Structures are given as structure tokens and as C-alpha cells.
Amino acid sequence: MSGLSQSAPGFITEWRFRRLLSAGYWSLKVLLHWFAEEAIKSLPVPENQVLYVIADGSKKDKRGPKNPAAQKGRLNEHHAWFFGIKFVVLMVAWDDYRIPVDFQIVLPKGHPDYQKENELFRHMLSHFQPPDWAEVVIVVGDAAFAAKDNMKLIQARDKADSQRRWGTTFFQVDQAKPKNQGFLRHLQKCRAHPNLDRLDRIPASGLAQVQEQGGLGTPGTHPPGPNQAPGALGAVGDAWSSTTG
Q1: For 209-218, how does the pLDDT look when each residue is reduced to its tens digit (9 = 90+)?
Q2: Which of 91, 93, 94, 115 has the alpha carbon at shortest distance from 102?
């Protein structure tokens, strides 16, 4: 804020910036959508003009029990219990860029406005508008988002969008065994900093199961890497073939 105020007119001081941003009448969603749109416009366009839309669920630990959105739970059977706020985030990615474009808070099940994660995901995806340069949109997520209604929504968007093709790929990776903790750390690093153009180079050691849902048309053939089982995390290649085939 201090650096921003130095480049502004003299009467716009740092405290004025802070007061403006902390005002209660701002809609966080409107600001997020605007910031994301401006960021996407300012970044270089990928050569292949492929946009990846990533869905992911996460949580934020909280201590205050009076927060109406706080709840006790765990992400899956392999994670520890937590108390906090669960949410679903929608991101776009290409090359080395990853930008959050929308999110939804998962309310406790006893809340009157409770919705499942897949319902929140469909709400975000139905309102998402890809940039004009995107010729192919590939929706990426884990197996939790591979619901039939989600697939139908993506197919409906592909049918209604005359400017681009829509495809999808969902995968599931079982937790690594203790002897494969090195692979688990590698997988966690890939989740934190994904490079989707190189998913086919992830070694297959420790992969127990990979489930892929074809996008549109017949899934294409994607040659496995030297250390990779056929089809294991070749999701991006298969999705690209299915959307362009």
C-alpha cells in the first residue's frame, strides 16, 4: 500500500487506500473476478491457445467456534481431522501461470444453504467465461469432481460454445505406501506447483490407480513416457486428442 500510494496523487495517502480496500460494501467476488480478468489480459498468450481450468478443494484452519462456516471434518480418509473452513477453488492455468478465478465456501451440512462440492463446482464453471484467445478449454480435477452432472455440464458448454472446444480429464491417485514416500513428496510438490504440460513425465512408481474420463469424442492415444505405464497420468494428452479429434 505504501508503494502504491507513492505513485498516486498526493491527496491519496496510504491510509486512504487501506480504508478503501477494507470497506464493507465491497463484494469480494466482484473484486476477484476483476483482478483475475485483468491479470489474464496482461499475460502472454500460449502458443497452443489451450486453457486449463482446474478444480480443487481445500480448507483453512480456524479456531473460533462461532464462525458460521467453520466445521469439523477431513478432506478424505487419509488426512487428519481439522476444524476450519472448507472451500472449492476454480483456477485457470497455462504455461507457468496459475490464476484463481472463483471460489465457493462449503458450508456445514446442517446449514440451510448447504451445497455439495460438486454443486458449487458446477455453479462456478457455469459462470466462468474463458478469455477470447482460448481455442480449447480442458477442465482438470481429481476423481471427486468426476460426477455425471459435471460431465454433462462440460459437454453442454462445448455444444453451446461455437468459438472453442471443451474437454475434461479427471484422475485419481491412491496414497503412496510407506516405501514410496519419496514419490508422495514428489506428487505433493507437483500439486503445489503443477506444470500440466509435463504431467506425462511423472514416474508411474506408486500409482495404484488412475481414472480418466474422456472429454468429447473418442479418447486419443498418448504414448507413455520411458518410466510410465500406458495411460498413467497421460490425461492432458488424451484430453487434447479427444477435444481435437
Answers
A1: 433 444 333 3
A2: 91
